[in-house]
Design goal:
Structural class: alpha/beta
Strand order of the largest sheet: 1-8-5-4-2-3
Shape: globular
Order of helices and strands: EHEHEHEHEEEEHHHHHHHHEHHHE
Largest sheet: 6 strands, parallel
Radius of gyration: 20 Å
Helix content: 40-55%
Strand content: 5-15%
Number of strands: 10
Number of helices: 15
C-alpha cells in the first residue's frame, strides 16, 4: 500500500515590495524576541541596515549578527556551537552562502529558519538541502525547508541583473530534469512522484506568462523557485529540479578554472540537454530571448574545452542517477553543438 505523502512547508511566506523592512514584524508575530542573524559579507549597505532597523522597531533582538563569507561545513558547525542562549530562530539574509549556512545552523539547532534572499539566482533559498563545502568539495547536505520565506521583490528587482538571469537558468532546468526523471522510470524503473513533477513543470509556465524583471515578473520568478524547493521536499529527492543539466554544472564546479554562476551554467546545459531529449527547446529559447539570458552568458564566455570535459565527466558525478547522458554517448553530439550552434557561438571561446 502506498502511504500518503506528509511534508513540512513554509508557514510564513511574504513575496512583496518592502518585505525586508517588515522582517522584525514577521518574527515578532511568530513569538520570537531573540534571534540569530547570518548576513552575506559585502551585502549592499542599505540592506543589512534595513533588516536591523526592522528588527529594532518590532522589539526583536539580534543576539548574534554574523557576516558569512564561507559556506564550509566547519564554519556552519562553529556558528551553531556559538549561538547565544535564548535564541529561538535563525535568519539568513543575502545570497546563497549565507542562506545555506543559516539553514544548516537552524537545522542543527532544530530552530525555525527564516530565509530572506536579496537576489533570485537559484532555487536553493527554499530547498530541503544546504549546499556546503566539505573538505574543499561542494556537497548537498540534508536540511529542512525554511519556516518562513521573506522575499522583498523591490530588493530582488534591483539586484544585479546577472543574478536574476541566473535564476531563470535554474528555473528552466526543471524542463530537462523532469524529462530525465521520466526517462529513468522507463529505463530503470525509478518511481516518479507525479505531483512533484507536476509542480516543478508548472512553475516554469507561471513565469513564462510574464517573463520580465519588473515587480510582477520578480514575484512570479520568486514564487516559481520557492515551489521548486517544495517539489523536492514532496518527493524526498532533487529529481524534479535537477537532472543531466545539473550534473554538467557540478562537473564544471569540480574541474573549471573559474566556475560561473550556478544558474548560468545550468541554463546553457539545459538548452543542450533539451536538444538531446528532443523536447522543450523552443520554449527555452523563447524564455532566454525574452530575458536576454544569452547576453549575460556572452559577456563572460565559457571555455569549450572545459565544457567538453564536463559533459564526459557528468554521467559519473552521481552513481545510479539515470539521465539522457546515461542512454548513449552524447559527447560527440554536444561537441558538434558547441562548435556549430548559432545561439552558443558567442557564449564560448576556444
Amino acid at each position: 500500500m502506498i502511504r500518503p505523502t506528509l511534508i513540512s512547508i513554509p508557514t510564513l511566506v511574504r513575496v512583496k515590495p518592502g518585505a525586508l523592512d517588515r522582517l522584525g514584524a514577521y518574527l515578532s508575530r511568530g513569538g520570537h524576541r531573540r534571534v540569530g542573524v547570518l548576513v552575506s559579507t559585502g551585502l549592499a549597505p542599505p540592506l543589512p541596515g534595513r533588516a536591523a532597523e526592522g528588527l529594532t522597531r518590532a522589539g526583536v533582538e539580534a543576539a548574534a549578527w554574523v557576516e558569512v563569507a564561507d559556506n564550509d561545513l566547519e564554519s556552519a558547525a562553529r556558528l551553531f556551537a556559538d549561538l547565544p542562549k535564548g535564541v529561538t530562530a535563525v535568519v539568513g539574509v543575502g545570497g546563497g552562502k549565507a542562506l545555506d549556512v543559516a539553514k544548516y545552523v537552524g537545522f542543527l539547532g532544530r530552530l525555525p529558519y527564516y530565509a530572506v534572499p536579496t537576489s533570485l539566482s537559484n532555487d536553493g533559498f527554499c530547498s530541503p538541502q544546504s549546499s556546503l563545502t566539505v573538505r574543499g568539495k561542494r556537497r548537498s547536505l540534508p536540511a529542512a525547508l525554511p519556516y518562513g520565506v521573506v522575499v522583498d521583490t523591490g530588493v530582488c528587482r534591483d539586484a544585479p541583473r546577472v543574478l536574476t538571469v541566473s535564476g531563470v537558468g535554474d528555473l528552466v532546468a526543471k524542463f530537462t530534469a523532469v524529462r530525465d526523471w521520466k526517462l529513468a522510470f522507463h529505463a530503470v524503473g525509478e518511481p516518479v512522484n507525479d505531483f512533484s513533477a507536476l509542480m516543478s513543470d508548472g512553475t516554469i509556465y507561471s513565469f513564462m506568462s510574464h517573463a520580465a524583471f519588473d515587480l510582477e515578473g520578480v514575484r512570479l520568478l520568486a514564487t516559481a523557485l520557492l515551489l521548486n524547493g517544495i517539489a523536492m521536499e514532496v518527493c524526498g529527492s532533487s529529481r524534479p529540479a535537477s537532472g543531466s543539466e545539473h550534473l554538467i554544472s557540478h562537473a564544471l564546479d569540480a574541474t573549471s578554472a573559474r566556475p560561473r554562476l550556478h544558474g548560468l551554467q545550468v541554463g546553457v546545459a539545459t538548452y543542450l540537454m533539451s536538444i538531446l531529449q528532443g523536447e522543450n527547446t523552443e520554449r527555452i529559447v523563447a524564455l532566454f530571448d525574452a530575458t536576454r539570458f544569452w547576453d549575460e552568458v556572452a559577456a563572460d564566455p565559457f571555455s569549450r574545452a572545459e565544457w567538453r570535459a564536463a559533459v564526459r565527466l557528468a554521467p559519473s558525478v552521481k552513481d545510479g542517477y539515470y539521465t539522457v547522458l546515461s542512454a548513449r554517448d552524447a559527447a560527440p553530439e554536444v561537441d558538434r553543438l558547441l562548435a556549430t550552434d548559432p545561439r552558443l557561438a558567442r557564449c564560448f571561446v576556444d
